[in-house]
Please model this.
Amino acid sequence: MFSATANQVTGKINQQYNKIEDYFHLKKTNDSLLAANEKLYNKLKADYALPDTASNIKIDSCNWIP
Model:
């Protein structure tokens, strides 16, 4: 009887400890997610950067000398 009660109490304490431990690991998890999001955002910007349309290269074929 005492053993079963002790196991229940120990189980409840362990559950509460795990919840507290998880809470304190949230900052580390959040920092990791922020870094991953930043990498993905930067990759998106690089992959989908609009070309510079302000400058055009024109080749004058009239002055071409063979």
